[in-house]
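ok trying again, last paste got cut off:
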Amino acid sequence: MQRTLFLLFLVASFASCSKADNKPVTPNQAPVANAGADIIIILPVNSVTLNGTGSSDADGTIVTYQWTYVNGPVSYSITNANVANTAVTGLTAGIYFFQLKVTDNKGATATDNIQVTVVAATDDDPPAFGTPYGSIPATDDMLMYEINERAFSVGGNFQGIIDGLDSIKALGVNVIWLMPIHPVGILNGLNSPYCVKNYKEVNPEFGDLDKLRTLVTQAHQKNMAVIIDWVANHTSWDNAWISSHKTWYTQDGAGNIVIPAGTNWNDVADLNYSNNEMRLTMIKAMKYWVLAANIDGFRTDAADMVPFDFWKQAIDTLKTMPGRNLIFLAEGSRTDHFTAGFQMNFAWDFYTAVKNVFRNNGNAGALFTTNANEYSAIPAGKKKLRFTTNHDESAWDATPVTLFNGKQGALAAAVITAFMNGVPLIYNSQEVGRASTVPFFSNSPIDWTQNFDMKTAYRNLFSFYNTSNALRKGSLQSFADINIVCFTKTYNAEEVLVIVNTRNSIVNYTLPMSLTGTSWLNAFNGSVMNLAATVSLGAYEYIVLKK
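nice, full thing came through this time. structure:
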């Protein structure tokens, strides 16, 4: 009996232990394969990057990627089929399908397909006018000038700009940006040049195609590139696309075409970038102006409102044009603009920070923080466009003379903005200190006879800028101060020292120890300046020195 009880106890104990150790096993969740959005390219572009980095695994890790060809034209080559990102080259016209298979660390798999459409180049492009401009400046060396056609001359036309090219060149400019050159829509319109009625026509208000060609040709002869404003986000309500291609536009639930989301831009209709046919037509229109007028690139309006993959598609296509070295400037602040192929985008944060220092007595040292933050977010070799005004600011905010408390304040702000880091922009009228706003929905000619002393000052500033490697591409050393902006720029053996008083009063500035007792030359007149422990600067005075 005792043995029986003992055996029963053992059986019960084993049963109990077995039950305690038998925990439920959580089944492995399969991974999710993501081959990316479908791709469209136009020959001669014949390669794409397949991107599977959007794939995921909720309860583990993806350990293998496998790209395979499914069907389509037989001409193709996958560079490396076993990585998340891979290039496919040698594509020809047609529709390809590729599959991505992912496997997780527990052996589960998933697949996803991507369609790659390769469109044959069409033969209806215009013949190329002139010879591609061969002296496009490097991004580091650019000095840009924005032209509001309606304000630049009494006539408000291309001829007025042609007549003023020598004056623009005298500022040291090597890139001209023309505001939109296209016909302006009338239906629901406000006469805004950013309300495009036809992407392949010249606004007759400014002249015709031949006159635009003359403008571009003469600018090239004076060693200045020409880019045009491109409005890709929306069109006018009387653009022919509205009636012929309604699906090219964004629509509400009732099928009504709508204005751009989050705006009050009632004069324009929002384009639908999920429509591939519209995308290709837009790119073709951009290509038209490179060929028909020999322009050198684009400033893209409202670039943040247009999808990244369109900009990459457009820039990749345009970069294949033989003999062209095109400039791409994005009006926006998205960091993916640079991945898409833009060389520059707008330094909105720096502009706001400069205004805060001059108008609100903000801490001048904060400008160095803003500068560092802007450049920490972009790839090496790319640039921010720096400005103290542009067409929007001078129309809706105020011109620099008003914003920065007079001519001397405007110049002081320009020195900081242009010399610290970035591609400098001049907007027509700022060089002669126009105080009133500069509209662009209507004609308001600039008086070029006023404030010639200010124009001379700008010429001196940018003449030195163009000769100084240190200013254009040197390393920055900053010396933070609440009232004074002080920094050096160094490139090889060249060193430049910039000291700017941001206050409308005299400031006695105690120099950093590393600068005390050093000797320099005035950048504008060559006179020797020996620095003591302090320097007194008048209201908005700036000092630029070199070694």
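cool. The radius of gyration is 30 Å. The chain has 16 helices and 25 strands.
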